[in-house]
Amino acid sequence: MRTLFGIICFGIMCSCANIGSPSGGPRDTIPPSLIKSSPKQGQKNFKGNEIALEFDELMKLKNPKEEIIITPDIKTAKFSAKKSTVLIDFDEKLFDSTTYSISFREALQDLNEGNPAEDLTLAFSTGNEIDSLLIRGNVQLLLKGVPCDKYTVALYQSDTFDIFKHQPLYFTRTNKTGDFKMQNLKAGEYFIYTFEDKNKNLVLESKNEKFGFKPEKISIQADKDSIELKAIALDARPITIAGIRSLGHFTKVRLNKNLTAYTLTSLDTLDKKIRHCFSATQAEIDIFPNRPTTDSTLIKLTGVDSLNQTIDSTFYIKQTTARSLKEKIKVTLAKAELTDDSHKFYAELNTSELLSNILPDSIYIFPDTITQIPFSRENIRFDTLRRKIFIEKTFQKKDSIKWNKAKFILGGMAFTSIHGDSTKKSTLPISYITAEETATLIVEFPTVIPDMVIEILDEGYKPIASFPQAKIITIKNLSPTSFILRAISDDNKNGVWDPGNPNKKILPENISFYINQEGKKQIPLRANWEVNIKWNL
User: Are residues 103 and 141 in the same domain?
Assistant: First the structure.
């Protein structure tokens, strides 16, 4: 018994002596504190090739190559954490008489809970002076009015720099609210840009990265605040022809980017009536020559992109004996609406082929078994370049007819393609729009600003309608959902928003949004409601 009792007591004593992590208790939310660094904050004449920071607890690194921003950039910097010390080593020699600034953002965290060191920066100089100026600002997406997170904000000094090729002298990145701060700057004049920098190479990729800029240099002689930059997605490359391919009875011309419009003419006197259209995208053009397969046709193409950059080129096309597989013509419905109060019918259709003939007698509305609403050629418009059909008609309302049951009929041979095949009969649905099921939005402007265009957008920022600004704008028959109001400063008075041209340092036209008292852009609408808004632009 004494032996057994001794063993039990020994086991209890050993259990009490075990060392482990305490259970329970509040979570550690205190960020790590910097005890000392080499070089020290604000140190001058630093000549080393290693930076060391010692903290009051064990440390780890999180995405240091993305989160730690060193300006001017040190390309060979290597980051490591050893117990409570964080090291930055670099092989290259630092520039003489240069102020270096390091922003650590959320890269340095305590080992256990991942609390980041707060607002930690380090500045030092390799010369006798340390630059101390700073700028602050914000970056927003121009077309949506939302903050840009993790966008690069960059400063350049040379007049000959190319943002698509050269890296900046100074740079930083925005936070979740789009705010940025760049410090330890040398007094001077700078060009300022912002861009996504998806591949983290500090060079703008014009094809797929959103960016913004100030057209004129900014002068930094003292601390500068409230710099606003607006970013948009623009393909600033010049227009080029990427390829020309014969596909039997037609030729496909592929460009490196979308066109907004183009003209195409034949320079061949024997083949003047050449047919053409955009293909699946507006970066491709399909051309249908009339000449025999043994002859070539000389074509002149003039096009323009969204930046008003142009292309003017000539080339030959030729039919080949190889026949491409062409599907039969297909016409698909994009929209068909009949509005109750105005009794206006509007439809949009897409066709897979160019049309050679439209038969209005085969197109009609069929509200019941005895009533037929016909269309004339004047009610139908065909956009040849984009292969879109628009049908519009306002007609007299008859109360005895149940218009909500109406069908849109495309009879046989309603549309015939340039290849001779025609559509078959089809019955398409119509959306019947009534005041009871929709909402009305009335927008009043206490002050009318000249050359302002008002747009109403859906929640995906897709434009629904636009209006030249007046004292009051009334928008009827809106779906009972949320919408957004956007105002465009129409500087060139063409009625649409223009993106400017970064190659010529022309800014895009400015945009502002209606913001309600709760700080939101969304305007909720309900069926059979009338919503009144006063917008003081």
Answer: no
8-state DSSP, 482: E
Residue 120 confidence (pLDDT) above 70: yes
Instruction: Name the domain count of the chain.
Output: 5
Euclidean distance between CA atoms 155 and 227, whole angstroms: 13
How far is it, in rounded angstroms, from Cα 277 to Cα 9?
93
Q: Where are the beta strands (DSSP E) in 289-414?
A: 296-304, 310-318, 331-339, 344-351, 355-358, 363-366, 373-374, 380-383, 388-394, 407-410
Residue 386, pLDDT > 90, answer yes
The CATH code of the domain that includes 405 is 2.60.40.1220
Considering the domain architecture, whether residues 45 and 97 belong to the same structural domain is answered as yes
Q: Is 370 left (phi over 0), alpha (psi -120 to 50) or beta?
A: alpha
State the CB neighbour count (10 A cutoff) for residue 246: 17
For residue 327, the 8-state DSSP code is P
d(CA 84, CA 358): 79
DSSP for residue 64? H
Same domain, 513 and 454: yes
The answer to whether position 16 is within a domain reads: no
* 136-176 pLDDT tens trace: 999 999 999 999 999 999 999 888 888 888 889 999 999 99
Q: Based on the domain organization, do 445 and 424 belong to the same domain?
A: no
Concatenate the DSSP letters of all residues of 253-307 into one string. EEESS--SEEEEEE--TT----EEEE-SSTTEEEEE--S-TT-EEEEEEEEE-TT
Element (H, E) at 102: strand 99-103
Same domain, 294 and 335: no
- CA–CA dist 432, 396 (Å, integer): 15
Same domain membership, residue 517 and residue 455: yes
Q: Are residues 443 and 465 in the same domain?
A: yes
- The last residue of a domain, from among 386, 407, 433: 433
pTM here?
0.80
CATH of residue 207's domain is 2.60.40.10
Contact (CB, 8 A) for 319 and 249:
yes
Distance between CA atoms of residues 487 and 510, nearest Å: 8
Note the pLDDT tens digit of each residue in 450-466: 899 999 999 999 999 99
Residue 5 lies in a domain: no
Domain span at residue 402 reads 331-433
SS3 state at 509: coil
Distance from C-alpha of 143 to C-alpha of 414, rounded to nearest angstrom = 40
CA–CA distance, 11 with 8 (Å, rounded to integer): 5
Two tokens, residue 146: 């939302």
Question: Are 454 and 516 members of one domain?
Answer: yes
Q: Tell which phi-psi region holds residue 440, choosing left (phi > 0), alpha (psi between -120 and 50) or beta.
A: beta
Domain presence at residue 272: yes
**First vs last C-alpha separation in the chain:** 93
213 in a structural domain: yes
